[in-house]
């Protein structure tokens, strides 16, 4: 059987790990693509995630962009300040990160929570974003059952970072559970076992509390004010929202395209990296693509 690991994903990839001071927050990143003339691309993970969510995307994107997959505020090996982790806190961190990189503008691709943050950033700082990718994004709905499941799985893994609980949390993300390899489990287990990680996850999970979530959601009229060219990317087996929600968002955002990826769950960039990389790179470069998209999909 072919051995699967993060290191196997990064084999042959020119990349580096580092830390930046982003407004006083020591921020960890994985980066590929050193040419300063290339446009900057930020890759933002979901709740409880970390930069390794993009291990299969760094190399291909680094050929075209100065690509940074980061550990977001309060996540991974980035600082975990004792403050409410509402969307504005993440947005402030991204703005400070761009300042630290010396980047006036950037492409931003966000998955789940990362998409929610990216969408709000695009609204609050339209002058600092080029193209936007919303990958099974959060920020538009408050489904009590999904919120409860995500909170239970994440809290259990953070409170007791055993192999079994971490594995169950990662498997929730995937349609094909076989993508959850031992190296990915061990990486997340190390993060969740680190000092302060449990308390940080409790702060992050306030977005799964109904009152807090609702006041952070983007209202329909706010989605219509996103001016960046946007790719709304969804999957056939996303556990957080059906494809109809992705199509609905793409109808609201004025300059949006919609892409459906087959046989993937909440991490399409990991489950089907080849399709994801091809589609996202073509979109970000403004190139014709050979994937089927809906310029203005019809909601079902």
- CATH topology group: Rossmann fold
CATH class, named Alpha Beta
- What is the β-strand count? 8
Sheet with the most strands? 8 strands, mixed
Global morphology: globular
Task: Please identify which CATH superfamily we are dealing with.
Answer: Alpha/Beta hydrolase fold, catalytic domain
Which percent range describes the beta-strand content? Answer: 15-25%
- Give the second-level CATH assignment, the architecture: 3-Layer(aba) Sandwich
Radius of gyration, in angstroms, nearest whole number: 17 Å
Number of helices: 13
Give the topology.
Layout: H1 6-9, E1 16-22, E2 25-32, E3 40-44, H2 58-62, E4 66-70, H3 87-101, E5 106-111, H4 113-124, E6 129-135, H5 144-159, H6 163-171, H7 182-192, H8 197-204, H9 210-216, H10 220-223, E7 230-235, H11 243-252, E8 256-261, H12 268-271, H13 273-284
Parallel strand pairs: 3-4, 3-5, 5-6, 6-7, 7-8
Antiparallel strand pairs: 1-2, 2-4
Helix pairs in contact: 3-4, 5-6, 5-8, 6-7
Structure description:
The chain is an alpha/beta fold and 300 residues long. It has a single domain, classed as Alpha/Beta hydrolase fold, catalytic domain (Rossmann fold). The protein contains 13 helices and eight strands. An eight-stranded mixed sheet has the order 1-2-4-3-5-6-7-8, sandwiched between helices. α5 packs antiparallel against α8 and α6 crosses α7. It starts with 5 loop residues before the first helix and ends in a 16-residue tail after the last helix. The mean pLDDT is 94.
List keywords for this structure.
300 residues; eight-stranded mixed sheet; alpha/beta; Rossmann fold; 13 helices; 8 strands
